[in-house]
Automatic annotation (TrEMBL):
Molecular-function annotations in GO: ABC-type transporter activity; ATP binding; ATP hydrolysis activity
Basic and acidic residues composition bias: residue spans: 678-691
Keyword tags: ATP-binding, Membrane, Nucleotide-binding, Repeat, Translocase, Transmembrane, Transmembrane helix, Transport
Record protein name field: ABC transporter C family member 13
Described purpose of this protein according to its UniProt entry: ABC transporter that may affect phytic acid transport and compartmentalization. May function directly or indirectly in removing phytic acid from the cytosol or in vesicle trafficking. Required for phytic acid accumulation in developing seeds. Phytic acid is the primary storage form of phosphorus in cereal grains and other plant seeds.
Amino acid sequence: MFMIGAVMQQDLIHLEAIEVACADGFPHDEVADSERQVTPFAKAGFFSKMSFWWLNPLIKVGYKKPLEDKDMPLLGATDRAHNQYLMFMEELNGKKQSQSHAAPSFLWTIVSCHKRAILVSGFFALLKVLAVSTGPIILKEFINVSLGKGTFKYEGCVLAGLMFICKCCESLSQRQWYFRTRRLGLQVRSFLSAAIYKKQQKLSNAAKMKHSSGNIMNYVTVDAYQIGEFPYCFHQTWSTSVQLCIALAILYYAVGAAMISSLVIIIMIVLCNVPFARLQHKFKSKLMEAQDVRLKAMCESFVHMKVLKLYAWEAHFKKVIEGLREVEYKWLSAFQFRRAYNAFLFWSLPTWASAATFLTCYLLKIPLDASNVFTFVAALSLVQEPVRLIPDAIGFVIQAKVAFTRISNFLDAPELNGQVRKKSYVGIDYPVPIAMNSCSFSWDENTSNPTLKNINLVVKGGEKIAICGEVGSGKSTLLAAVLGEVPKTEGMIQVYGKIAYVSQNAWIQSGTVQDNILFGSSMDGERYHNTLMRCSLVKDIEMLPYGDCTQIGERGVHLSGGQKQRVQLARALYQNADIYLLDDPFSAVDAHTATSLFNEYVMSALSDKTVLLVTHQVDFLPVFDSILLMSDGEIIRSAPYQDLLTDCEKFIGLVNSHKDTIGAADLNKNIPPQSSKEVSKKVTDDIHGSRNTESVKPSQENQLIKKEERETGDAGFKPYMIYLRQHKGFLYFSLCMFFHIIFIAGQISQNSWMAANVQNPHVSTLKLVYVYIIIGVCTIFFLLSRFLLVVVLGIQSSRSLFSQLLNSLFRAPMSFFDSTPLGRVFSRVSSDLSLVDLDVPFSFVFSLGAIFNAYSNLGVLVVITWQVLFVSVPMIVLAIWLQRYYLASAKELMRINGTTKSALANHLGESISGAITIRAFQEEDRFFAKNLDLVDKNASPYFYNFAATEWLIQRLEIMSAAVLSFSAFVMALLPQGTFSPGFVGMALSYGLSLNISFVFSIQFQCNLANQIISVERVNQYMDIQSEAAEVVEENRPLPDWPQNGIVEIRDLKIRYRIDAPLVLHGITCKFEGGDKIGIVGRTGSGKTTLIGALFRLVEPAEGKIIIDSVDISTIGLHDLRSRLGIIPQDPTLFQGTIRYNLDPLGQFSDEQIWEVLDKCQLIEAVREKEQGLDSHVVEDGSNWSMGQRQLFCLGRALLRRCCILVLDEATASIDNATDAVLQKTIRTEFKHCTVITVAHRIPTVMDCDMVLAMSDGKVVEFEKPTKLMETEGSLFRELVKEYWSYTSNTNI
């Protein structure tokens, strides 16, 4: 059975921490929750629970107005994820202690946690089976009464009353069975979601290779949900078998030995089903694998959409996803066709069974009369519905088994060994916070080729250690080793104290700036303001529309690279830790901000802290206590600056290459001497901002991240029409319905033929039977056609919907991705799409089929006993009203379920990408508590939704029981002989299945109404306003455009949204062809926006950009972007091979690629790998260092050879030596091209032909750098001065 290793050993210990986190981690949620009362279900009495009376208030509110999150009472304590998770952990730990030799089974632990609920719901299932089985027996007695064989006077009336009581019993027990198993499923789902989240917090690096973020997302949004559906079907499997046995006994009671033929047919059909079930299981597993691969690709594309647009690669990536979807369709159609054959077998069972039995009766000379024929028909129709559910139950069991295996494998995956950090006690000073003795570390736990080898390191309390070395030397891995992220293969490591960590690639949570800085700590106004000052954030926050309460979007998309880094630094500083691990945090900020940060942050705020700083900035090194020089995963020297400068050649080379890049002598000529104190003062004032004005806050509507949109109220037939309009959907659907009507008509005519002629002496038994059989066989062909058409309808609609959704998302502008959390997009392309693929087509056809069934049953009753109209007409009116009353709430509950699921997926996605940071700050418990809260918020609407379905069905069942009993009363009270016994039998056998057919009709309609919301949600993203055309046929540029590379910008004004203020205010300048242009300016001056405008990521509000006489707004986006080269700010690698990352479109030969790798200084790193160009690149390229990723991006630009190249702060993560080589490569390789460089490092632009200096979205200067250096008071001169002060002043 499935095992769980040391899954969640110490989780019980963390519990108080979680409860504390729940209490103070997310105060605003708590306030809202405290105002909501707990569900009335928790306090409901026996009668209220049995009749679902406790739900009345909520349904009443939902009928009056569209329900919202706040209208829903909280779940009861037992149903909350926290308690479920606890219960499971206690049980698991108990089992571990009792069976010390073997790991306890995961499945049986869940069963033993919930055995009482399973037994109680099982008791109700049994009760339901027994209540149903009384029907045919009462029917036989009733026919005997109509034949005049009654035993006492009012026997008919007593039987009618008895019928009503049995039907009510059946209804109460079935509703409790369904409700209790659904609730149990919800509890299991909540616990699994929590367990998966907890596991991903501890996942080892090796396990992350197998379980990508897309997979983990799928485990929660798809697999856990499918397991949650399983308990609902579990009792269906055995109760159907019991019901079959009882039905066979009734058949024997009705037709004697002829019942053997029915038994043979049932056995044959079940045996035929076995191979289908196996195939279904295989195809479902393959389908889930295919879905995982597609989701992973979609996930990667949407996360890096900006890069795809800049490189004009959308079409290629879209094509890849379409190819993966084709594979998915292959398994989807295989699975759905097997499902259809399966369903066909079981639906045709009554026809085959009755045909075989009546034929046997004829052969065995068993007389047929109204009594035994219709007892037989009634018994068969009782079995018919549960038997029809067998394929669905099998399907659910198969889906749950596949999902369970996947989740079990994930929960068994290897974990990080968290033994690196020792417990620290407040008030104790540790003389040696970090000690490593002969340590080797390897990401993939490979002892033969470790990532870091023979590391000896002792860091004393309060020491400042700098770590430097060339790209890929293991600097970031060393910090990861201190954090315990890299498996240790040998040696000893000890880390004491609280750690704060700043990653090289900024990880920002969606939420406000304040949330990101506080990171779960309580607000201390003075410390908070001091933190903002130290991190140079005061001015930036003043510029945001809501100050520090501005929503900054997913991954902080609304902040510049430098702002993100400073928010990270502020988060670390606010935590007031003992050890600070800073991974190259100054690479994304400009020189004067870096100086200020270094002074204010590292040297002042962290003066008494232990600091390990990875840096490429040689200028900071003199003030460090010690410098670790790394190369090829080893620390080659560890000594203070001066010592290294005297006797370490490698270090001297590093310093000299830095001096070369800043061209110290040239700078010095142009800068008058000035004390560093002055500069620092000026810099600090500039950054901190001396404005203290109160900005006017716009309304909450203007927040950058909008609340997730959902439809409200009754959408009418719109979503159904959307589904059926796809690719001949109406045609397939109409044919399905037509065939279904013929099938029902065939069944009625079969039974009418029997009823009319069973007592007719002029019709021989043989004729009676063979006409009956012929009609039955004809109807079966229509049944098969109907099932096959359902699958075709589903596949074609899914294909069409997906294609539109994919086109819409890939053509959406960047503003859509900036303002839409990806969790919303993922929940639509994963769980919503999964429902549309698998369930919607069957629900669609079954719900309309069930409506026809129900009304045909009622029709038969009415035709035979017209008096029933007195009861049935009011009942139908009441039923339709009840359904509307219910649907008003149910639809909103399903929609809220969708939006809360997006929030859950979002939080999970963020936690996966920020796992290292969360672990470094030891905030796992707070994030886990937030996850539990989101799981409950998602479970709540689902709980009320299925409870409301049972509420409705119970009321409808009682009503149909009343119609049946009334019909029986009429027959009992009217004089004998009014009705022929055949028609009495037919009427009551149809009447007995009336409530089943009505319930199924309502159930399928409710399922469909709930599932169609997925179509509605997918449709919301099918019509996103798209970017400009990819290609404008009548205005295509020449194949060799641009030839000269002249860029002319005329009065360019840009705003990000219609209602937003201008970001660029009328920029005008001209870059001559072949010139090297440097764009400089402080953080937030509009440099990156200008580049965005060049690639038309944002369209101008006014003005234009002309490249080689072509106005770029008049040509297609693909034509524009594919002709420009860029090395973007965030170096991005995709999962795949090195070759694929450099040349995804496959346009270049291996020789060309090797040549480029040589120019990018990557040839050695790639040759070391066994597979060369086919070496694997994992998700986000995390198996390559940040600098190497940047070099790969340079490689892409070298391969493309564009006439215009843009470098967007492209050398930010690279050491000076590599930077010098790169600059040289760019100068020689792009000698005749226009190169536009956005720079933080001033030396990068010193040898440019022209410099464009920007401030607050305006051009301040555009001139040759030498001329600007000579101009007193120029902004460029100021920036150079600041940079010079920061590089030359070693006492920083």
